[in-house]
Design goal:
Strand order of the largest sheet: 1-2-3-6-5-4
Helix content: 25-40%
Radius of gyration: 29 Å
Structural class: alpha+beta
Number of strands: 16
Order of helices and strands: EEEHEEEEEEEEEHHEHEHEHEHHHHH
Strand content: 15-25%
Shape: flat
Largest sheet: 6 strands, antiparallel, barrel
Length: 552
């Protein structure tokens, strides 16, 4: 269990007359990480055209009794905020080194779905306050920042929290830094209260690459994707990949053959992976945003990119688990996390054990893709017909199971709800195509069309799985809505019986109409919902009328 509040590394940033400007974190004995706008506030009206020359005070709130230390900005580690809300990072060098650590444990993690804790120093709270929040997902210019939603009750993240470490509640790791709150008002009120943003560790490392050696663990893309690349990019492939990971292409699993490392397809895969990375995306200049030219996907649109070449199945399994937070060295048990929502597994056929990798890692993830709406790019260096046929066979079998589940859902809801979608029947035809592909290979009837036929069948199977899963989910949702309405009607009838009103002339016809709409053949859910609502309101009104009469 992490002992929050005992960390020695949180600091307050002080301006003239010891005015609290914001927060920060000591990352080693000589350096403090904070927001550029916090340091800038110490200069008053002085322009921020260059690196600030004025000192700020660093108050070691995590070490009671420690003296305030003077600090200045490290010249190459000053990234002021841009007009569109990027940057806002500064590294300070302390005039006197700290006596001891530990220091802020920065970590790269998936920037969504985590519960976090933030300590800040609002103007009216000298000793600070803790706020619990949840990482909602990327937002802002270039998706560099991550929105944080404070819990509905308790204090909120307001002015005075800028530069604060965002700490994972479960592990105690620092996963980002608070950069702004809604409007940066002194008090956050209304529906926007509790809304704030952090810059995740990966984005901090993009601005301050000199800090990378202070952050253990691996980045979200394998370093193999970062090899100096002078190969021409196939822009048509790059645009297709951008559309795929930007969820503009209706597909869950995309299979590509790259042929060789210098091909345009291989270069497109590398480009898309690097440009999606918060840590490694290139910029066109210090005042420009991320390079958004052809083949540049939205930042953070790919959660994890793994190159399987020369690696064991266990290594790749651990790589994915580490990213998801399934295992953590600081905890004694699993810190369960979801799989990546967007994933590249590159060069599957060049892994140490391609068949084992396919069966133990790839297929379990692929099976989740339609239901969870994942995006997976699977690349092979060669045509790898047998590996891809095994993958295809598994997906066709999944399609058969999904269509069977959809038919069961249809049988349950069609007699009760009108206008339900029909269940598609594509598995049979795709099994025939799969059998033909297998027969062509077994009979040594491989020709120039085989690769195209295999790729076409892969795409058709992915489309069919998406459609079948979508219909299944729709049918289940319709049945759930019908069941909820029936339960509500029964509940309000029980309430009326309890009060002795069930047979009253004013209520009985309303109940009969709602009951008839729900149970006499397939119903219009909109009309049935209106009828159930009318009956529930009538029951409540009758009970209220009796209560008012009893009060007189």
């Amino acid at each position: 269990m992490v002992d929050h509040g005992s960390e020695p590394w949180p600091v307050r940033i002080l301006g003239p007359h010891r005015a609290v400007l914001g927060t920060g974190m000591a990352i080693d004995e000589r350096h403090v990480l904070t927001c550029a706008h916090v340091v800038g506030a110490a200069g008053g009206t002085e322009p921020l055209d260059g690196v600030p020359t004025w000192p700020v005070g660093v108050d070691l709130v995590g070490q009671p009794g420690a003296p305030t230390v003077s600090a200045r900005v490290v010249p190459d580690c000053w990234v002021p905020p841009t007009e569109d809300g990027r940057g806002d990072v500064a590294l300070l060098e302390l005039a006197v080194p700290l006596a001891h650590g530990p220091f802020a444990p920065l970590r790269r993690v998936r920037p969504w779905g985590r519960r976090v804790l933030v300590q800040g120093f609002p103007e009216t709270l000298e000793h600070g306050a803790y706020v619990r929040a949840r990482l909602a997902g990327p937002s802002g210019a270039g998706r560099e920042r991550v929105q944080m939603d404070s819990l509905a009750t308790g204090p909120q993240i307001i002015q005075g929290f800028s530069g604060a470490a965002v700490v994972d509640e479960l592990t105690g790791h620092v996963v980002g830094m608070v950069v702004s709150t809604y409007g940066d008002e002194a008090v956050a009120v209304g529906p926007a209260g509790g809304l704030s943003w952090m810059i995740p560790v990966e984005a901090i490392l993009n601005h301050l690459p000199s800090l990378r050696d202070r952050v253990p663990g691996e980045p979200s893309i394998d370093l193999d994707f970062l090899v100096p690349d002078h190969s021409p990019v196939d822009l048509s492939v790059a645009r297709r990949l951008v559309a795929f990971f930007d969820r503009q292409l209706p597909a869950n699993v995309l299979v590509m053959v790259t042929v060789h490392p210098g091909s345009g397809t291989a270069a497109a895969v590398r480009r898309v992976a690097v440009h999606s990375s918060r840590e490694f995306r290139p910029s066109t200049g210090p005042d420009d945003g991320p390079d958004d030219g052809p083949g540049a996907p939205p930042v953070g649109s790919i959660d994890l990119a793994v190159d399987a070449a020369g690696r064991s199945t266990g290594d790749i399994t651990q790589r994915i688990a580490d990213w998801a937070g399934v295992f953590d060295g600081t905890t004694t048990g699993p810190a369960a996390g979801p799989p990546p929502r967007a994933l590249i597994i590159n060069n599957i056929d060049e892994a140490d054990e391609p068949e084992k990798l396919l069966s133990e890692v790839v297929l379990p993830l692929v099976d989740q893709a339609p239901a969870r709406d994942l995006r997976m790019l699977l690349t092979f260096r060669g045509e790898s017909v047998m590996l891809r046929l095994a993958l295809l066979a598994s997906r066709v079998a999944s399609l058969q199971g999904t269509e069977a589940a959809a038919r069961l859902a249809y049988q349950a809801v069609a007699p009760r709800v009108a206008g339900v979608p029909p269940v598609p029947d594509r598995a049979t035809r795709l099994r025939v195509r799969l059998t033909a592909l297998r027969a062509a290979i077994a009979g040594d009837a491989v020709d120039d069309t085989l690769a195209d036929r295999l790729a076409s069948t892969e795409r058709a199977t992915d489309r069919a799985l998406r459609e079948a899963e979508s219909v299944r989910q729709r049918l289940v949702a319709l049945h759930r809505s019908w069941s909820d309405l029936r339960g509500r009607l029964a509940g309000y009838l029980a309430m009326a019986v309890h009060h002795g009103f069930s047979e009253e002339p004013a209520l009985s016809p309303i109940h009969r109409k709602a009951h008839k709409l729900l149970l006499d053949g397939p119903c219009d859910l909109v009309m049935a919902e209106a009828a159930v609502r009318r009956y529930s309101e009538a029951v409540v009104d009758r009970i209220e009328a009796e209560r008012r009469g009893g009060d007189r």
